[in-house]
Amino acid sequence: MRNPIIVALDVPDAKAALDLARQLAPVVGAFKIGKELFVGAGPDIVRAIRDEGGAVFLDLKFHDIPNTVARAVAAAAQLDVAMLTIHTSGGRDMMVAAEAAAQEMDNPPLVLGVTVLTSMDGNDLNEVGITEDPTAQVERLAQLATKAGLRGLVCSPREISSLRKVLPQKGQLVTPGIRPKGSNADDQKRTLTPAEAIEAGADWLVIGRPITAADDPRAAAEAVLAELSF
Q: Is 147 one of the annotated active-site residues of the chain?
């Protein structure tokens, strides 16, 4: 089994990100670059982490008209990212265009559909006019993403089991909201431990502050691996 840990580099600048990448590259599977870091450091931070030997999950959650998203996916692929995200709520045509753009590349990135953010619960969905509970909304969007040809999804670990019934056998699930035993939930409302998420059927585990804010980030990552019996 490959190393499933994706470390979320939710830090404000390139120096902090590279310091973490150099410590953690030997013991984790990939690094997630989100909006804060990408806006602050630009595409060069992707190149720098790739130069350190780290795979990159570019988590910018594209959501726009189909042509614009397709061009964004193509640009991300040129940076040699392994994974990237789009919002499934952008609709079928947008998702089809994104996957088609990825497949035009020599080394296609995994385009992951984001269903319901792990910071949202039923009350949050109701406030934006969605009356279904989070699990039902996740399943609805996951089915749409599968029909559009996406090969993977980002979802709360609480929905992994149900999504395994929707996804094709080779479909991949990337799960934020992972909190090792003894960690604070922070702003995540639907969480599982790493071992629980893998047991439920997750392929990749996105872990941020429990590793990056630890006194010894590498030791924290190694502790997660030990929990997973690596």
A: no
